[in-house]
Amino acid sequence: MPCVYQPQTPSPAPTSITPENSPFVIEGKGEGALKIYFENEENKKAYLDIQTEHPGEDFTTNLDNPARMGSET
Q: In which domain, by residue range, is 30 found?
């Protein structure tokens, strides 16, 4: 039986995401600042909810792993 190619209807292209219409966060200050763009507010919120540790500045968050390493006794 011969194989017949039947092209699929292409799915619509995703909405164009551009810096002008995207939520963002600026991390850092001055020339070293980084502007991070997100697809939507939900992704931005998920990013902002990630706990980070800032040694020397923030002593309220401690992400230290208290488990012993392989050779430690």
A: 21-48
